[in-house]
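Morning!

As promised:
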Amino acid sequence: MRSSPVLVIARKEVLDHLLSLKFHASMAVLAALLGLSAFVMYRDYQLRMDNYSVMKQRAQPRPGEYGVMAVVEPNPLSVFAKGLDETMTRGYTVAYYTGVEPRTRQTPPDSLFALFAAPDLLYIVKILLSLIALLFAYDAVSGEREAGTLKLVLSGGVSRAQFVTGKLLGGFAALMVPFLVALCAILAALATRPGLHFTSDHFVRLGLMVAAALVYLAVFFSLGLLVSARARTSAGALMMLLFTWAALVFAFPNLGNLVAEQLRPVPSAETQEMARRAEFVKDRFMDVQGGDKPAVRAQNIAQYNRVFDRMVESYRAGLDSMVALSKSVCRISPAATLTYVMTDLAGTGVAEQRRLSIALMDYKSRNLEAETARKTPAMFEFRRSEMADALERGALVDFAALTAVCGALFAASVFAFLRVDVR
Amino acid sequence: MIRTLVLKELHDHLLSLRFQLGFLLALVLVSGAAFVLSTDYRRATEERYQRLRAENEFVRRYAHLNRITSALDTSRPPSPVVLVRGLRNDSGIEVLDSNPMPDLFGSLDLAAIVTVVFSLFGIVLGFDAVNGERERGTLRLALSNPLRRFEVLAAKWLAGNLVLALALAASLAAGAAIVLAVSGAHWSAAEWGAAVAIGAFSLLYAGAFFSLALLASTLARRSSISVLAAVFAWVLLVVVVPNISPYIAAQFVRVSSVAAVERDIQYVISDQRDEVGRALSRKVYQKYRGVFDMEEAQTPAGKQRLASDPAYRKLYEQVRDELEHAWDEANRIQGEKGERMTEADNNCRAEQFRLSQRISYASPSPAFLYAATDLALTGFRSREEYTKQVDAYRRGPLRAYFERRYREEQAKNPAFGWDSFLDISGRPRFTYLPSRLSDRLSASMRYAGMLAAWNAAFVLGAVVAFVRYDVR
């Protein structure tokens, strides 16, 4: 039985790649970086775990202490997509007369970490692998035309659509198989490390994150094929692709966010914090003027909490609408979509942080009731969202959007190639 | 002759698709970023103004010495060189809900565009400068003229840098025009100087990547190889080294977890302080053993004796003062110990920061970023200066003012306390004094030196490789 031409071309493509310098160079760089990233992100996670265990000991509610501490355990998946985990695991002082005050975070936001993104798996896929995907695809068609083999191939019984499909399958497999193998090796190495416990839920989430990464890379691979089919020379194709890549990966997500921040502005942290402190000082002032009578005191506390709640509420509404706008603006860039999908799936994304902040505010009000009833408040516990929740809250839509872009680009490359002069 | 060569190269570049694409992309991105950052500047200025007004209003009604300092605004105005965003003004402030975008995405300012797009631009312009000509066969032709190889390379280098300078100048001019038209920021000579200096740094930086591509094109026989080599080098230098450096530094200089440090300090200044205080008091008790018994003095009989016996009373007061002194001493000893611990932790963090900076110098892009942000007053240096100024303001004029006002009010009304209302509308305000441009420039000279060294290393490599180049 003869195998289908698609498979023949795919097989040839894989062999071609396996023999090329490009393949070995990119895979060496990739493997080294994946290993380095896993190592440094694991150490980073460990440090936050240390921080957490110290804070947890102190978080046991004791009578007569200033407020109660609420702590959140670091997320093991933050090793792969750090997202907002650092922000979420700061630890919080929850007191009825100061509201919810975050404590200092482990890595201060005005250090070098602020200027450069964390080198986690998300970063490597988003920046490095997308570029490697383009490098694998840019001469898929134009290279064969330059070498003169395109005419030969198409003179056989291979249709143009089959040719492009074979190219996609072969090139993509050559890119993905080493990546997945390296990833599994790293996962195995990480899973045996002390202090890092992955449950089956984590593995499912990680599987979906990797699936999203694959779709994302397929987008870039198809883009490479499209440009390669249309460009006259490989060098021209590569140039086009490099600039497109810079625009899609760096410029659009960041610019989209800036635009969203301008269209739906939220007050800066400075303004928020000044307003909160002013309310706090005012509350104490009224207290003292009221002569520390219990009734006045209770009234003032209630008043302060009302104002604090309202401030948080109104800020939150603004923030939600900004994030929603930013999400829709950023849809034009697969890199931004990938960031949202992966952080949401890992449970280190915007939605999870929102859940945490709501849980903290709930805890504060319950705490307030406990304090007025002179009971020792219960410890704060944060239940992480279920995976179905994360999917429902947007990851699925983002996933679908990525897949749609990928399909459209691939279809476009097939159609583009139909009209190409192969000489 | 070299002039002809440069002109030919310029001509080639300017008419090429790659130049036009890159130029367009850079121009559009810089203009877009300038517009968005300008509206951001306008909003931030307005927001700060409103904050100061709200503060005035607030102070008029609720100021009391006990807690007012925490509610006084000491923010600094947003930098008028809005093109380079750098560290956000509010990045050190922890609030429950804050904007998550800076943690998830970078921001797109001139520095980011230059770091990524202009460096790629340099590589795209230069990756086939030599081997492309060899492939087309024109290299042999050119060298059959009475030309030194060095001259050919120098012409290519000069033309590449001129083209980059043109693109940079056009983008910067467009950006500056938009900033001046939209943001409402007033640019004095210092801001213009900073903008021009940032442009010069950008050229040094992008030029380094052009030189890198030139080197790749003289080392590799085929342009398809040199482009890959240059892109890989770019990846390492621009997106790997800077991001990995703080994490690598964290492996060598370990800082303890903030919570642990806080816990230890808390222990030293409370529980341990109590122990020390008790030990010191015991000494006092032992000193007066048999002469005076404090416990006895607390009993009703003792209290009676205190009232009736002046000698006993004097002894009591002496012991009481010594005990008070012992506790003061315990507070002082443990307080100093706590301060030393804080300082040790801060030193450790500072050392980690310095090391990560040093590791990041393995790539030209952090050096450029530090220089650009420092020049635009949004970098680490100006943040440090700002923090120092706030600290000096709080410890100096503000504290002195509060103490003076407290004395004045107490002289008028003896019942005046820390919790009474105090009119502080005449308080000294915090004004941020940005460092002078000349200071910033001289501080950024080391980065200029680093970037120049990168340029020189790549160019030198290219010259050496080209001397031995087989032009066939």
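The mean pLDDT of chain B is 90.

Hope this helps with the figure draft.
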